[in-house]
Amino acid sequence: MKHPLFGKLRVAAMFAVATVLSVQVSHAETLLIYNGQHKVTANGAAQAFEKATGVKIELRNGSSSQLANLIAEEGNKSPADLFYSEETPPLAALAEKGLLAPIDAKTLALLPGNYHAKDGDWLATSARVRVVAYNKAKLKPGDLEPSVLNYASQKWAGKVGFVPTSGAFQQQIVAIVKLKGRDAALEWLKGLKKYGKAYNKNAAALNGVERGEVDVALINNYYWYALAKEKGAKNMASALDYVGHKDAGALVTAAGIGILKSSKKQALAQKFVAFLASPQGQQVIVNDVAEYPLNPSIKSPFDLKPFSELDPPDVSAADLGDAHEATELIREAGLS
């Protein structure tokens, strides 16, 4: 089955690697990337690009939101050339402040159009899906809810884990606003506060399911695969429920990258973004973390549910914006 989002991107993708490898650079060339993406992913991409081009990549790691705030404070004096974010809202926030440069149209054309800013100021590089992790000893698939909204109820009192500080959770709030309205999103959050158990990290919420502290947890798919890689899939006490049928519980979110307008190495920064969108770059991105490649020619080494079967809501990365409304709703619900 063809990926419904990809369209006819394969021809354009054929030229990506050749374009990147044609860069002629001196050994002194260096790009500084403020990195909020997973370290293993960013390190792999940096090493592959350096091997292909000779360009040195310096990574300064931190949380995506903190790095975006730092860039905003630094303004046109920022030493960074690029910002690689674990999620797209921090990129959207910087774009709104006019701090990002447009990405080359040829690079944007390599990946699906709903995975970049509408004005081309940032590009999504990989995707992940919101899921419900459940304890297999306590629940069967038939016990699970058809909508993520249903978990914020008395039926699930003390049984559902969630992570209000998670960027992906906040994007899920925005998706609910767009699909059901602000009042529904606020009611959901108040229900989770009343009946759920808040964790500070997604991995902690998943471990809560594994230990039986809670029956279910609202997380991203790749946290389960990371733990399964460590423990062995057959030793996992939990499994994943993919909510589907265009519910906010099946929201697809993305990591992304942007070029700082203040960078004095615009051409070189464009080459790095083109590399991430190329087949070679996309393969590197998904080799170690169970995210979905956005280039249609690439296959993940993880046994992921096919992207074409996720049936996510019609809310794109660009539609999520900077997710500022989510922080306001979290505060109103008393979760911060």
Notes on the structure:
There is one protein chain. The protein has 336 residues and is of the alpha/beta class. The chain has two domains: 10-127 and 253-305, D-Maltodextrin-Binding Protein, domain 2 (3-Layer(aba) Sandwich), CATH 3.40.190; 128-251 and 325-332, 3-Layer(aba) Sandwich (D-Maltodextrin-Binding Protein, domain 2), CATH 3.40.190.10. It contains 14 helices and eleven strands. Strands 1, 2, 3, 4, 5, 6, 7, 8, 9, 10 and 11 form an eleven-stranded mixed sheet that branches. α3 (39-53) packs antiparallel against α12, α4 (64-74) runs parallel beside α5 (89-96) and α7 (167-180) packs across α8. The radius of gyration is 20 Å and the shape is globular. The termini are far apart. GO terms for molecular function: metal ion binding. Pfam families: SBP_bac_1.
Keywords for this structure?
14 helices; 336 residues; 11-stranded mixed β-sheet; alpha/beta; metal ion binding; D-Maltodextrin-Binding Protein, domain 2; 2 domains; single chain; globular
